[in-house]
Amino acid sequence: MSSDIQESKKSKRSNTASLDDIYISEETRKRLLYRKEKEQKRKVLKHVRIDDKELEKEIDKGVTELPKKRFYRQRAHSNPFSDHQLEYPKSPRHMDWARFYPDFISKDSGTLPTDKRVEIADIGCGFGGLLVDLSPEFPETLILGMEIRVQVTNYVEDKIIALRAQHKGTGKYSNINVIRGNAMKFLPNFFEKSQLKKMFFCFPDPHFKQRKHKARIITNTLLSEYAYVLRVGGIIYTISDVLDLHEWMKSHLNEHPLFERLTELEEKEDKCVQIMTHSTEEGKKVERNKGSKFIACYRRIPDL
Amino acid sequence: MKHPFQLILANREGSLLFASTKNVVQVFSTENGQLIAKWIDPIDTFHTLKKQQKEKIQALKEKTEGPVKIPKIPVPGKGAPPIFNYIRNMHLTGDESKLIVTTDSDKAVVILELNLDNSDFESRIVVLSRQAFAKRPCAISIKEDDSRLVVADKFGDVYDVSLDKNFLTLEQQAPKKSILGHVSMLTNVIFAKNHIITSDRDEHIRVTQYPKTYIIERYLFGHSQFVSCLKLCPWNEDILISGGGDDFINIWNWTTGDLLFHLDLTSYVQPLITDRHLAPMRFQNKEGNLTETNVSELLVHDHKLFVLIECTSAVLIFDFQSTDNLPLLHVIKTQSPVVHISIALSKLYVALEDYTIDGFEIFDTNTFQPVLEDVSKNIYSNSTVEFESTTEQYPLYHVAQLRKRGEH
């Protein structure tokens, strides 16, 4: 794997003929070509209605096939504290959400109806398994994944395009999309106060080293931001296979004054708990390895 | 050579001038320019390195039987960046009995008791409390009744500290638990009635309830670059003024979130730009003429807004009679770049980048003319902080480095 990376780096320093560089392995060449083709299709298809007749010639076999995950691999970690060249809106009202959910554009106004706002967010959505499984369960609700890793985001975008193309004419999977974004820093730039009904934190990075606990996705201070964007009654869903992280998340949510734990029965009966337990890539991996899954869900309560 | 004042602060009636110069706080009388008190940060340059050595020894002892070999203090080699033990932030308590400063030497908040009438020069400033924090404090704010202090650090956390007299005399560790946090470096924090307003490097201005700091009330969105200055309007504390890396200043009603006025500075700043405002080579445009300017200080006084653009030889003054419009009243021009400004009563105090005798000036805030020139010269000539080589001089301008450069 590391030799692939080295070759990949070398090819970046070469001229435009790099794809013919004899030192590139066949697998690397295949990956680079695949990524290039996917990027070109993505540009055309990711912000438009798949049903548009003018796009028919763009919908070829490559588009309707689900993307191949192995071509999107990258190192697992991405530092949320760095100044990535990530785009983020100056404020929520600067976001053009119609580009992400074009099927929901009102024919009259040409924009999204005012009551159509993102209401479910998957923070750190990974390869998008939860988004895909939530989509048919909440077909009228706009759902957004936020992911900081560029290749993983590209994979999810390609997957959504493929699913929309496979279900052309039905409107399926039009209610999900993904954004490459740093939720730790810029969540309030994307969402208004009290906008969200559900927030998912599925198998977040445990950051085992003590000095990295500031980088964990659930902290006292980040919870205040989640309470800001969640409406009263909205729910935070957490799931992890790391017991220490699970206990950390529980203790921080328990001590935050704006959250209360759902009862055991409520958790059991919530269909989102079932969905999130089985739909993510990490969830499936844990299942295959017969590991444990720890779940904790909390409701946003009124300001005290 | 005289070292320029990095930070200045006048007391309420303007009888005293506090100046942070390298690792020294000097107090001058504005009546005659005399130096009446001085505090030198006693923490030495290698404090951080020694602390690391001590921690290393402790770790070795815990896992080694018998005596341990003492690890050397790494001596910075040739070409290592110099260490500057700045005294950043200077705030007077409401009763002006204490000066609160932050130090880079040990990342501490130091509370200094002022006894300026004491006949013994050495006893006029006494350290009441010194609390070292895990991360460098970037900004502090004192509650109006002098009961509490909030400290904002470069990691994005805000801590709440008691200023109760009994508390201060105890040997207290800095608080471990933050009351609120951002994820990026905090640049400012201010107490505003029952709230705390914070700003960060990622263009955020956040309004949080206090003491229920787990409730975020609102964000004031509108800046495109870091926010470095936050000021409340003294005659209407619902009004907040913000500025930083943008070429504009925003004026808000922070209690409602409304942007009241957007003060475009472009045309006023353009004539003040020099080569020192050129963007670094790596971020230049094709023509190599890209410039960047930053608001480094805002003062609101007597229905006027005083704006300092970093490393310019000018102070911009705007008419602040209303929030509908802020016309330019005057531009004070100086002989050398302005490092910092402060205001008391009807005097504007200006610290300049000068190395001989003209490093300080006083202007009248109504006529905008220089006044008390002999006092100004006395103050600067009475400063005891000097340096001989350029390596000893502390950098004077820090706001520009808050600008983000894209990584990947």
From TrEMBL, chain A:
GO terms for cellular component: nucleus; tRNA (m7G46) methyltransferase complex. This is tRNA (guanine-N(7)-)-methyltransferase. S-adenosyl-L-methionine binds at residues 124, 147-148, 182-183, 202, 280-282. GO terms for molecular function: tRNA (guanine(46)-N7)-methyltransferase activity; tRNA binding. It is found in: Nucleus. Transmembrane segments: none annotated. NCBIfam families: tRNA (guanosine(46)-N7)-methyltransferase TrmB. InterPro entries: SAM-dependent_MTases_sf, Trm8_euk, tRNA_(Gua-N-7)_MeTrfase_Trmb. Its EC number is 2.1.1.33. Pathway: tRNA modification; N(7)-methylguanine-tRNA biosynthesis.
From TrEMBL, chain B:
Keywords: Methyltransferase, Nucleus, Repeat, Transferase, tRNA processing, WD repeat. Its main location: nucleus. InterPro entries: Trm82, WD40/YVTN_repeat-like_dom_sf, WD40_repeat_dom_sf, WD40_rpt. WD repeats lie at residues 220-262. GO terms for cellular component: cytosol; nucleus; tRNA methyltransferase complex. GO terms for biological process: tRNA (guanine-N7)-methylation. It is found in: Nucleus. GO terms for molecular function: methyltransferase activity. SMART domains: WD40. Pathway: tRNA modification; N(7)-methylguanine-tRNA biosynthesis. It comes from the Eukaryota. The keyword tRNA processing applies. Belongs to the WD repeat TRM82 family. Required for the formation of N(7)-methylguanine at position 46 (m7G46) in tRNA. In the complex, it is required to stabilize and induce conformational changes of the catalytic subunit. This is tRNA methyltransferase complex subunit. It comes from Komagataella phaffii (strain ATCC 76273 / CBS 7435 / CECT 11047 / NRRL Y-11430 / Wegner 21-1) (Yeast). The lineage of its organism: Eukaryota, Fungi, Dikarya, Ascomycota, Saccharomycotina. The gene is TRM82.
